[in-house]
Amino acid sequence: MGSSWVDHGLPDPSEAFRKAFPGRSPTLLSRAPGRVNLIGEHTDYNGLPVFPMALRQEIRILLSPRDDALVRVVNRKREFGPREFTISHEIPPHVTGDWANYLKAPCQALARRFGDLNGFDALVSSTLPVASGLSSSSALVIALGQAVLRVNEKTLSTLDFAEEMAAAERYTGTQGGGMDQAISAGALEGHASRIEFGPLEVFETPVPEDWRFVVAHTLVRAEKSGFAQDAYNTRTKECREALEVVAGVAAARGLAPEGVVSYHHLLERVCIQDLVDLGEENLEGTLLKRLRHVVTEGSRVYDAEHAMKRGDRLTFGLLMNASHQSLREDYEVSSPELDELVDLALGAGAAGARLTGAGFGGCMVALAGPDSVDGVMESMEQGFYQPRGDVGKLDQILFQAEASQGATVETL
Ligand code: GLA
């Protein structure tokens, strides 16, 4: 995969901006971090909680506001060519998978919300690996959306903005939940956040000082806008179908009112065991498996949050392992490489390990203590990366996550 995954080591960004847009200089810097989800996978679009933290790795956009509605964007990574369009409430999309759609999504949404908007010239750079399950695409949406607001002197509360951007990103064709946008926009440094949906709410927990989260890339790209999109969207559909069936049966038996349309509301009335029992009686194989993952994963989030609050690494790790098993067997979103990384981490003394993000490739996250972290990283290096030959810069694909602050925009 080599060094094209991130663009460290390139010349000064302001210099690059002036080269890309002769005669113009950047006046704003908008940045938004990626995230690593610690537990609560494929729960957000089902209205159940997640527990991510923001990363130090981020998207950075240098900008110069314009007097017209034109948006011109150059990406320092050559695989993403320059794009240009006009902001309006109806922006024609590029073909599915084109990175321009992640630029157009926030622009269209904010034009619908605020009316006529001015555009800008922008230079995008990134220290996040692409298609890695670390939310580089949502970080781009957040950084760009925030830039649109600042250029046009508009404001939204953090949660309102995060919700707006989560809805906006569906423009790209992925029926995603709201986790990535909420953590990228609103994370608190040094903390993990339990995020609830409908309504969107965030509850922070300090990450204990002696906990080390190791992130390791499978070297397999999980393109949110490519092959993984279908598999992802299929899962969202299956979850809705499973919910409709069990909610209908629960209503017929007087366990829940008619017309319950979310897992969250169903779980307020029917306990997990009863829900899975209803599933076993009324659903066929795949839908039952999806239901079982979603409802058990949601409850693991609360248990994990409590474990982190008491500094109980052992329990947090066991919950991560249970999450991975459920994602592999019931949700069927793991891969041989993810399983291999998980096994290596556990074999080297990690308290727990699991895939993070949507799966189908991307990254694994493992929890270690100060004494075991070096061994865990060495085991990845020797057991996974060395046998694969040239993998580019190791520190870009294997690193300790630092719980970082959410998005900011500053005047230069
Ligand atoms: C992707 C989506 C998120 C979430 C995860 C899986 O990252 O963008 O909304 O659904 O997958 O937990």
Question: Would you identify the CATH architecture of the largest domain?
Answer: 2-Layer Sandwich
Give the overall silhouette: globular
Cα-to-Cα separation, first versus last residue: 34 Å
Biggest β-sheet: strands ordered side by side in the sheet: 4-3-5-2-1-12
Helix content range of the residues, please? 40-55%
Number of domains: 2
From the helix content, strand content and strand pairing, which structural class follows? alpha+beta
**Contiguous runs where pLDDT drops below 50 for at least 5 residues:** 1-6
Beta percentage is 15-25%
CATH topology of the largest domain: Ribosomal Protein S5, domain 2
Quick description:
The chain is built from twelve helices and twelve strands. With 412 residues, it is α+β, with helices and mostly antiparallel strands.
Could you list some keywords that capture this structure?
412 residues; alpha+beta; Ribosomal Protein S5, domain 2; Alpha-Beta Plaits; 6-stranded mixed beta sheet
Describe the secondary-structure layout:
Layout: H1 13-20, E1 28-39, E2 51-65, E3 70-75, E4 83-86, H2 100-114, E5 120-126, H3 136-151, H4 158-169, H5 179-186, E6 191-196, E7 201-206, E8 212-217, H6 227-252, H7 263-269, H8 272-282, H9 285-309, H10 313-329, H11 336-347, E9 352-356, E10 363-368, H12 373-385, E11 398-400, E12 408-411
Parallel strand pairs: 3-5
Antiparallel strand pairs: 1-2, 1-12, 2-5, 3-4, 6-7, 8-10, 8-11, 9-10
Helix pairs in contact: 2-3, 2-4, 3-4, 3-5, 4-5, 6-8, 6-9, 8-9, 9-10, 11-12
Bound molecules: alpha-D-galactopyranose (GLA).
